Amino acid sequence: MYEKLALYIDGEFIDGEGRKTEDITNPATLEVLGQLPHATQADLDRALDAASRAFQTWRHSSPTERSDILRKVAQLSREQAEQIGRNMTLDQGKPLAESIGEIKSCADHADWHAEECRRIYGRIIPPRKPEVRQMVLREPIGVCAAFTPWNFPYNQAIRKICAAIGAGCTIILKGPEDAPSTIVALARLFHEAGLPKGVLNIVWGVPHEVSDYLIRSPIVRKISFTGSVPVGKQLASLAGAHMKPATMELGGHSPVLVFDDADIGRAAKQLARFKIRNAGQVCVSPTRFYIHDNVYDEFLEAFVNTLSTVKVGDGLDAETEMGPLAHERRVPTMTRFVEDAVGLGGKVVLGGEPLDRTGHFFSPTVVTDLPENAMLMTEEPFGPIAPMTRFSDTDDVIRRANSLPFGLSSYVFTTSLQTATQASNQLEAGMVNINHFGSALPETPFGGVKDSGMGSEGGSETFDGYLVTKFVTHV
Questions:
Q1: Is 144 a catalytic residue?
Q2: Is 249 a catalytic residue?
Q3: Less crowded by CB within 10 Å, the N or C end of the chain?
Q4: Angle subtended by helix axes 417-426 and 394-401, to nearest 10
Q5: What is the pLDDT of residues 69-117, one digit of tens each?
């Protein structure tokens, strides 16, 4: 059964009676799955009040209590992964195996935060005078407002919730209205795990209206957002105007550098498969391919051969390897990227057009011979399109890779330690993956530089944005 959609405020699930609602549709079949209720202003005020009241006690809760709840959520996530994952595929579109895998990997995030939250330490500073005692305390910042995207709905939400709750904060989360089922399921799991009322609250609505109202509220003390660069800049500006710290994980345009000493067959197959993950709707998806002249033809052939066999279809079909795009508007956007490339002399060597079937499907696409000013080389496509370009000089390709204002993730394929070291030192990105895809683990920091955001989620850095530093000195 598809998840019953609701608000979750002060420990209560609230349906859409008397509220504005919106249809939730399956992007593969266009079937209406359910009705999502929007929060009224009174609902938002209730969520703010609940989070504020709950913080007064939760801030003093034992790290052991917080850890126990997070561990219970991890257990429930694993137990219910198949049903939650199936509903994710229904409203978001990705293949069922990817959806279930996302839920199970998120159980690891909950487990890791359960351990790490028990290790939020202060420190003692040796004094200059023997009668003075100096200490540093790390305390929860307060009520947090978080805004999460539709491409990895469970993953993006649980990262923020676990970090906030583990730090002793309370949180109001507005999830993605286009893929809401997993967020409601997540609220249900925390509810079943015994989380006190008001510590977690889930609201829905018109995104800019909800974010504006929550960020302006004096109750909210910290903002966390994952999404596009333009929206992130707007929210960061609003948060800054109210002196509220913000964690921003924004868009990227990940360069891929394939050198002529790499294992070309292996790199091409790995990158092709990684490119179509979630139909390319991944902020760290490889999106700008720079291939060394000496191996360009070999790499292109292997990459195209791999993509040409990909089974595109409904995510619930066991044979499907790539599902639909999540939104109807994404299909004409993909077409515009291809048309711009062709208009500038690019060649479509695979795909390049929507699939003629019900649903928001676009074919896996490879484009070559692109100039640097093409849309595909300057704007994040967020879809299953791979632009291929050549390079011959290491310094030049690193300069090209760094030429955009984005700096989230990057990929390097080489067997040379010298080349790998040079690239990892000089690439302007929050994450550099060499010869594999190793980001987004619970124990590793995830975040970008430049326009791709500020702050990190995951790793020992995960609690930094949810804690304040207090210095205490006494004689």
A1: no
A2: yes
A3: N
A4: 30
A5: 999 999 999 999 999 999 999 999 999 999 999 999 999 999 999 999 9
How high is the pLDDT of residue 289? 98
Burial 317-337 (b: 16+ CB within 10 A, else e): eeebbbbbbbbeebbebbeeb
Rounded Cα distance between 466 and 456, Å, is: 11
Pairing status of strand 123-125 against strand 133-140? antiparallel
Q: 225 - beta bridge partners?
A: 147, 248
Cut 0.90: pTM above it: yes
User: How far is residue 373 from each of residues 29, 429, 453, measured CA to CA in Å?
Assistant: 36, 21, 23
Amino acid identity of residue 181, one-letter, is S
Cα–Cα distance for residue pair 218/54, rounded to 1 Å: 16
Q: What's the rounded Cα separation, in Å, for the pair 158 and 229? A: 21
**pLDDT digit string, tens, across residues 73-84:** 999 999 999 999
Provide the percentage of residues in the chain whose pLDDT is more than 70. Answer: 100
Mean pLDDT, all residues of the chain: 98
Superfamily in which the 7-250+451-474 domain is placed by CATH: Aldehyde Dehydrogenase; Chain A, domain 1 (3.40.605.10)
Burial of 39 from C-beta contacts in 10 A (0-12 / 13-18 / 19+): buried
> In the chain, where does the domain assigned CATH 3.40.309.10 lie?
254-441
Where does CATH 3.40.605.10 sit in the chain? 7-250+451-474
Show Cβ contacts of residue 349 under 8 Å, excluding neighbours closer than 6 positions: 300, 304, 366, 367, 368
Class of domain 254-441: alpha beta
The answer to whether the CB of 219 falls within 8 A of the CB of 48 is: yes
From the list 106, 283, 321, 428, the catalytic residue is: 283
Nearest-angstrom CA–CA distance, 459 and 446: 8
Mean pLDDT of 452-472: 96
The one catalytic residue among 22, 98, 102, 249: 249
246-249 and 365-368 beta bridge pairing? unpaired
Spell out the residues 6+ positions from residue 216 whose beta carbon is closer than 8 angstroms to its own.
238, 242
DSSP H stretches of helix in 37-180 = 41-58, 63-79, 81-92, 96-116, 153-167
